[in-house]
Amino acid sequence: LQPQYLEKLHGPFITQLETSHSTFCLVEKIEQDRLIITTSEVSHMPISRKLFIHQWTGIVLLGETTRETICESHCLIRNINYMCRQHRILIAGIISVLLVYSSIWSRNYPPGLPLYLSALTCGILISTIILYKEMVDHHFLHRFCHIGKVIDCNEVLKSKGASIAGIGIGELSWMYFTTMFFFTAVCPEEFHLLAALSVFIAIAFTLYSIIYQIFFIHKACLFCMLTTFSVWLTAAALYIIRNNFEWRFSIRILFSMIAVSVICLIFWIQAKALVSSDKEKRFMKVKLSGLLNPITFQKLLALKPKVRTMIHPDIALHNSADHTKDRLMVVVNPNCKACAKVHHHIREISADISISLVIYTNDRLGAHIAQTILSAYLSEGWEKATYLLEEWFEIQEIPGVEKYYINDVAQLLWRQQQEYCERNNISHTPAVIVNGHYMPSVYQLAELKYLLVSSDNR
Description:
Helix content: 55-70%
Structural class: alpha+beta
Strand content: 5-15%
């Protein structure tokens, strides 16, 4: 489409941009001067209309409902399940906070205590937002993080002064607020002294943060200011309730605080590991997607070991798809569990790729199954034979096995297949061989449907 057609489009729709990364994107909303898009790297990102038109290829993906379209009747439940798995850490934190509030409000504590807990809750929320911006999405709440020339949260959070001994301001503030919140829940009548000492240290950090932003980096972070406000609010709440609690210290109280801080630290380490694991999975998925290129596949394929000759189609189970120049050979064993996982992909790609299926066996049961499948192939063809083999892999039984008499031709084909495998040193199953070369292990059999068909169309 030409750029002027953008005025006639309505979101959401999927389109393509001319960028070095995140080629495809979802246009969620079109506004007068900007668009809201989501890519594989960034969610709900605003982009100016001018920049979008400059990068836009004019391609818009269209889709329609067909008879084969799956209509999910439980999509709402599935969406809820997805959201729960996607935000499991946040949900666990919210439930923990609610449990603390229910415990405190079920007892007759002074009214100042809920104010103190509310200030800590605000601090937990703000520090969680900072951690999310630092670790997951730098564009999160971008409108509030970049105001004029002074407010620039990303620049402040990335600066050297925003971390102490390699620990960022988000981690420090989160550890402080969560530790004090749950320590108050554990010792609601004895927390005041240690809480006061902790808030003095926290105020010192807030003064450092203010001085650093004003006099050194000359930038301000909105979330850092809100964190500072939350710390001062906790100090004010402690001052209000200073006469309602005993100022006492004991080893038990100190141990309780240390135990709570260790638990919070362990929770943070595990949450950080989960986030890092998710980021690594997404990164590897993007990197490996570059391998789904027919040219790359052919280059990697040429580096793999080669068999002496490809099996003749008359000896193997062959699907007669001879309209493609590429030849695929798959060697399976009826008693191989890994072969069972591969076999259903064979039926999926058989309509587009020339496939020769070889059944290699090393015991009497396997030989009997192989000869039965070959008999079915000789009498009823490829589809029936592959279906029966799939049934064997799933339920260890061949439906209507008495129909398929093992004749001399089936035994001859079986012997020729065994001789072929021994002659070419093929003993490990499943073995996937493309044009005489073993398929690289980074690929899956189902992906050949796109790699080989695409190479034929070049």
